[in-house]
Amino acid sequence: MRKASRLAKAHMRLALAAGIIALTICPLSLASAVADESRVLALENAWNQAQLHHDAAALDNLLPHSFIYTDYDGTVMNKEQFLADLKDPSYQASLVVNENVRVFTYNGAAVVVGTYHTKGKYKGRPFEHWGRFTDTWVFENGLWQCVASHTTLIKK
After folding, report:
1. pTM of the predicted structure, to 2 decimals
2. For residues 129 and 118, is the Cβ–Cβ distance under 8 A?
3. Which CATH number is 2-155 given?
4. How far is Cα 57 from Cα 60, in angstroms, rounded to an integer?
């Protein structure tokens, strides 16, 4: 009986230690997910600012060579094409805003979904668009980069 009692106590200690470890790790992983979410949201906002100011150099660091973009009209662009399009001086945005944004974090990745509102002039003609977007971010080598972006037009 003594052996069974010692074994039961050992199991209880092991269960208690596992519980303490779980309670310690869970808040840390939650804090990490919140930090990742905040960082990715900041990068999304930096992206919008880069679009407003035709700052391809700023976006160059946020996009890997393998980046792929699908525009609301079905046009698919690689990184080089996307950055060239960003530099087009005939596109003059006065507003680029994301709304209703949600971030879903995963181990080393994040998916951002939301709506966007853009306004300005293109080739001298005014435009105003509302749409939805999905951006997929990956954390590699200590850096968050957007590997894919897709937009869908809701209305012009």
Report:
1. 0.78
2. yes
3. 3.10.450.50
4. 5
